[in-house]
Amino acid sequence: MLIDDYTGGTAQGSDVLVVTTNEVPGHEVKQVIGEVFGLTVRSRNLGSQLGAGLKSVIGGELKGLTKTLVQTRNEATERLVEAARARGANAVLATRFDVTTAQDVGTEVCAYGTAVIIAPAA
């Protein structure tokens, strides 16, 4: 499954809808399955760290680190979807992300939400 770089929307054709809202317009929650999460830790690239050091002196976006964080976020979301699918869900509501530094060697990203089964409202 592909995830949009910044919007977090799911790719067309995915069997698990991932949203940040508590409900999906036009649908009702038929069953709450429970919390699911996807976790990944990614080490920092030496080149990106050097570039980030230089950028911190002169200012500007840290494009290498931004790209790495987007990739890491997408990986965590893919794992979230896998966990929801394994439990029989077709949607994850109230999706959130938690980002922390893992012992100064990398970035930990956890995507979490509530796995549910939704159906079009009658």
From TrEMBL:
Q: Which Pfam families match?
A: YbjQ_1
* Alphabetical list of InterPro entries matching this protein: UPF0145_dom_sf, UPF0145_YbjQ-like
Q: Which domain of life is it from?
A: Bacteria
Which Gene3D superfamilies does the annotation name? Hypothetical protein apc22750. Chain B
Which family would the database say this protein is a member of? Belongs to the UPF0145 family.
List the PANTHER family: UPF0145 PROTEIN SCO3412, UPF0145 PROTEIN YBJQ
Q: What is this protein called?
A: UPF0145 protein ADK41_35455
